[in-house]
């Protein structure tokens, strides 16, 4: 069953095995660099620090993946022009390709720079626009979250399942603070203001990919954020759906690779969660 008939493997090398091994190697290397980030470079704002570590990790991941699958396309955060327009253009360039690896080499760069141990490597493989493999690796805790389309999502060999919190009042949510201060940040702050009295609590921990993995693992009931890019979401989106959760845009439309304003949940709270954001005028 070699070749392109099976969407999950080429020859004997499984896409998932390559994703897992690559994430582990990149994650270990990133961890070894904690504290060594003298060569700071600034992208679009001082909140968007990009280090040599991001670039080095992406180069390592790209080389490993393309060694196994030279005909595949690669979309990585560091290969795109800065800002939302750069990210949208970079996705447009590859979205028609059959197999596209979508990679955030270091999601949570700000945390990494500060030595705050909540950052991740996010690697997804999309086949004809649909994510079929998603891996998010947290090197600080040595946690590898792995999902394969139709085969479930796993952490340390155990199947993951989203939380059972049926009401907002029992829910622990997470969000992220958008870098756009004119429209997105005020909108999100309205969402936080409206939701915080309705839920158990809200966390803002700084790695979208890991927030999605935490929803998949049942550690968070839900998550939303405005202005994210394909590489922040692709791997985590499959972790969530394969764990029984739901991912949509803020209008409730199904997640696609182009989705930038996202909400994710255990499914049970999704409608109430969305209604609360809508009523707070937090939907952009
Ligand atoms: P990063 O660390 O890879 O940049 C935190 O709210 C989330 O937003 C992180 O996943 C972070 O990913 C992402 N993020 C940070 N700066 C961003 C920017 N300028 N545009 C889009 N996403 C950003
Ligand atoms: Ca990111």
Strand content: 15-25%
Beta strand count:
16
Q: What is the CATH third-level topology name of the largest domain?
A: Fructose-1,6-Bisphosphatase, Chain A, domain 1
Mean pLDDT: 93
* Count of alpha and pi helical runs: 8
CATH architecture of the largest domain: 2-Layer Sandwich
Radius of gyration, in Å, reads: 18 Å
Poorly predicted sequence stretches spanning 5 or more consecutive residues: 1-5
What percent of residues adopt helix (DSSP H or I)?
25-40%
CATH superfamily of the largest domain: Fructose-1,6-Bisphosphatase, subunit A, domain 1
Given helix and strand content, the structural type is alpha+beta
Strand line-up across the major sheet: 5-6-7-8-9-10-11
Q: What is the chain-wise order of helices and strands?
A: EEHEEHEHEHEEEEEEHEHEHEEH
N→C terminal distance: 46 Å
């Amino acid at each position: 069953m070699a070749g392109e008939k099976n969407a999950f493997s080429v020859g004997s090398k499984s896409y998932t095995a390559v994703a897992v091994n690559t994430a582990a190697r990149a994650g270990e290397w990133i961890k070894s660099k904690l504290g060594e980030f003298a060569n700071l470079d600034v992208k679009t704002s001082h909140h968007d620090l990009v280090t040599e570590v991001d670039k080095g990790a992406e180069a390592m991941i790209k080389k490993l993946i393309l060694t196994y699958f030279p005909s595949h396309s690669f979309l990585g955060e560091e290969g795109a022009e800065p800002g939302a327009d750069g990210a949208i253009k970079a996705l447009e360039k590859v979205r028609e390709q059959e197999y596209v690896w979508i990679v955030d080499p270091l999601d949570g760069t700000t945390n990494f720079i500060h030595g705050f141990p909540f950052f991740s490597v996010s690697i997804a493989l999309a086949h004809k626009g649909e994510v079929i493999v998603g891996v998010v690796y947290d090197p600080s805790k040595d946690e590898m979250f792995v999902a394969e389309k139709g085969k479930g999502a796993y952490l340390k060999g155990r199947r993951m399942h989203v939380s059972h919190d049926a009401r907002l009042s029992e829910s622990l949510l997470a969000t992220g603070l958008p870098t756009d201060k004119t429209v997105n940040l005020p909108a999100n702050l309205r969402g936080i203001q409206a939701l915080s009295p309705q839920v158990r609590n809200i966390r803002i921990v700084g790695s979208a990919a890991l927030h999605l993995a935490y929803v998949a693992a049942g550690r968070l009931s839900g998550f939303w954020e405005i202005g994210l890019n394909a590489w922040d979401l692709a791997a985590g989106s499959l972790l969530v759906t394969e764990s029984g959760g739901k991912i949509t845009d803020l209008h409730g439309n199904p997640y696609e690779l182009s989705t930038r304003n996202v909400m994710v949940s255990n499914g049970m709270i999704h409608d109430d969660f969305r209604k609360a954001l809508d009523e707070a005028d937090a939907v952009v």
